[in-house]
Specification:
It is a single chain. The chain has a seven-stranded mixed β-sheet with strand order 3-9-8-7-6-4-5, sandwiched between helices. Strands 10-11-14-13-12 form a five-stranded mixed β-sheet. It is globular and about 75 Å long. About 50% of the residues are buried. Helix 6 links the parallel strand 4 and strand 5. The chain has 17 helices and 14 strands. By secondary structure, it is an alpha/beta fold.
Length: about 400
């Protein structure tokens, strides 16, 4: 393969985001293809035994085994690093593989981790259940409480984990504050940026050491493939994360990496449309009446609106809403939808709604769910690319069926 201008970071870093998404990270073979090539191979052949030895020794550029790196995955990683403003990226099979690899590579027995308590259910499992099995202690804090963050640090605190906006309550964490505090205490900050996407929010610019994505969400954006990505500095990747990845093998497949590359080309367009739709839908839901609340970071009545808009360029594609009649009414609402699908994914071109207490956070203890505000009346809506008026009409008719509207 040969590199073109899409691989020259001195050039591509000067491009605007939209150009980076379409042109950045591109390699071309001698065939001169305009769409990135897909290298569906597990291994690579060498011209001679000396070449094989040199590649494994790191003395010769090239590929050795796709668990270590694959050209298609490398293009996806290079483009992700470019748009995020990170020095380096490595892709994984899923978003949770990215979370697990990043956290387990940083910690060891006897260490302590601090996390915001408002997290995706599987992230809570990693923090609360998995890491303690290996002797890593943890403290969960209210992510909006600065004093709670300060009080949580210990001499053995090595890492901080947070997601903002949080799944599904949309709680927002002051990333700059947490990063400054963590660095004063010698801890690494890992930010799950899935809800905001690299289009709306840049945690690295606010001091984050590691940024995590489930590429399954907005980056693919069309419900086709699973994937994840870890972005960080060259030093942290080479010395800490990459040895874990290479020896445990949570790799993305070349096919999925290629799909993610295609998704990145339209990410900015899709996210902008989703955010615009979400803003209109959130306003309509609020005006409809009958709901206990409608939470959307882009609305002025969102409790953390000012902080959200300081950190994000738009309000995002996710809305949290609460029906007064608990699970029974929530299920009636979901079952009456004609356009919007009942699904636990987010960031899809299609609008999706789920009941977190019985799906994404079903594994979280009831007491912890209630502490977070994830009760039987909470619903999460991921707004897609349909016409906003059609979505609004669908929600209004479903609310009528469920006897929600006043």
């Amino acid at each position: 393969m040969k590199k073109d201008t899409g691989q020259n970071r001195d050039i591509t870093s000067q491009w605007r985001l939209q150009t980076q998404l379409v042109r950045g990270g591109t390699w071309r073979s001698e065939m001169g293809e305009t769409s990135e090539a897909m290298f569906m191979t597990s291994g690579y052949a060498y011209d001679c035994a000396e070449d094989a030895a040199a590649r494994f020794a790191g003395d010769q550029e090239g590929y050795t085994y796709s668990r270590l790196r694959n050209p298609t995955a490398a293009m996806f990683e290079d483009k992700m690093a470019l748009i995020e403003g990170a020095e380096v990226a490595r892709s994984t099979a899923t978003g949770m593989a990215a979370v697990t690899a990043a956290m387990l590579s940083i910690v060891k027995a006897g260490d302590h981790v601090i996390s915001s308590r408002a997290l995706f259910g599987s992230c809570r499992y990693v923090i609360e259940t998995l890491m303690p099995k290996f002797g890593v202690d943890f403290t969960l804090v209210d992510g909006s409480d600065h004093s709670a963050w300060k009080e949580a640090f210990r001499p053995n605190t090595v890492a901080v984990f947070l997601e903002t906006p949080a799944n599904p309550t949309l709680d927002v964490v002051d990333v700059q504050f947490v990063c400054d505090l963590a660095h004063e205490n010698g801890a690494v900050v890992v930010v799950d940026n899935v809800f905001a996407t690299p289009v709306l929010q840049k945690p690295i610019e606010m001091g984050a050491d590691v940024v995590i994505y489930s590429a399954t969400k907005h980056i693919d954006g069309q419900g086709r493939c699973l994937g994840g990505c870890i972005l960080t500095t060259d030093a942290l990747m080479d010395e800490t994360i990459l040895p874990f990845l290479r020896n445990t093998g949570p790799n993305i497949s070349p096919f999925n990496a290629w799909v993610m590359l295609k998704g990145l080309e339209t990410l900015d367009l899709r996210v902008e449309r989703m955010c615009g739709n979400a803003a209109k839908v959130a306003d309509a839901l609020s005006d409809m009446g009958g709901l206990d609340f409608v939470k959307y970071p882009g609305r002025s009545d969102f409790a953390q609106h000012e902080l959200a808009m300081k950190q994000m360029s738009m309000g995002g594609s996710i809305i949290a809403l609460h029906v007064p009649g608990g699970r029974e009414q929530a299920f009636k609402f979901l079952n009456a939808l004609d356009i919007i699908d009942i699904s636990n994914n987010i960031g899809d071109a299609k609008s999706l709604m789920t009941h977190p207490a019985s799906t994404t956070h079903a594994s979280v203890a009831e007491e912890s769910r209630l502490e977070l505000g994830i009760d039987e009346g909470l619903l999460r809506l991921s707004v897609g690319l349909e016409h906003a008026d059609d979505l609004i009409e669908d929600l209004i008719q479903a609310a009528a069926v469920a006897r929600i509207t006043k």
